[in-house]
Amino acid sequence: MTRITPITDKAQLPPERQHEWDAVLAERGRVRGPFAVMLQSPGLALGFLSTLRNTHDDSVVSPALHELAILAVAYEDDAPYQWSVHVSTARAAGLGDAAIDAARTGADASHLDDDERDVIELSRQLCRTNRVEQSLFDSLMARHGQHWLILIVGTIGLYRYVAAFNNAFDIDVIAGDDQLPPRR
C-alpha cells in the first residue's frame, strides 16, 4: 500500500494546480504510480514529464532497447512497480523473452544480440558502480554515436530516479502475470 496518499483525482489538487493533473493525464493517458505521488509536490510531475519526453519522444534509441534499459534498472534497483508497468510495453516494442528473462533475473546476457547484451551491461554497470567501463563505452559510441549514448544513459538515470520514488513510497505493483521476483 502506498505510504502517502496518492493524488488519484484532480479535485484533490487546489484549482491553481489542476493544470498539472491535466498535463499528466494528457501525456500519459492516466495518473498513477510515481505521478500520483509527485503531484503532492508543486511542479515536480511537470518537470518529470519534460524529462520523460526528452528520453522517449523521437528518440534514436529503439523502443525495445529503451524498455530493456528500464527493465534492467528495475531488476538492479529492486523496483517491482517499474517492472510491472514496463514489461508489457517492452514486449509490445518487440523485445524478446530471452532479453526480458536476462533483465528479470540478472543472469548472464552474453547469449543476446550485441545491443541487448550491451544495454543490460551498461545498466548494470551504472546501477552497481556509477561508472561505465571504457571498452563498453567505446563499443556503444562506435556503434550508435554520441546522441544515442546520451539518451540511453539518460534513460537509465531517469528510471533510477523513478525506482527511488516507487520504492520509497511503496507504490503498488500493477497486477499481472509477469512480475519481478522479490529480492529483499
Following the backbone from N to C, one meets helices and strands in this order, namely HHHHHHHHH
Q: What is the tally of beta strands?
A: 0
- End-to-end CA span: 17 Å
Count of individual helical segments: 9
Helix content: 55-70%
For the largest beta-sheet, the strand count, sense and barrel status come to:
none
Shape: globular
Mean pLDDT: 93
Radius of gyration in whole Å, from Cα?
17 Å
Unreliable spans are: none
Give the DSSP E fraction (strand runs of 2 or more residues): under 5%
Helix-strand category:
mainly alpha
Q: How is this structure best described in words?
A:
The chain is an all-alpha fold and 184 residues long. The chain is 62% helix and 0% strand. The protein is built from nine helices and no strands. Helix 4 runs parallel beside helix 7. It starts with 17 loop residues before the first helix and ends in a 16-residue tail after the last helix.
Write the layout of secondary structure elements.
Elements: H1 18-28, H2 34-38, H3 44-56, H4 63-76, H5 80-92, H6 97-105, H7 114-129, H8 134-144, H9 146-168
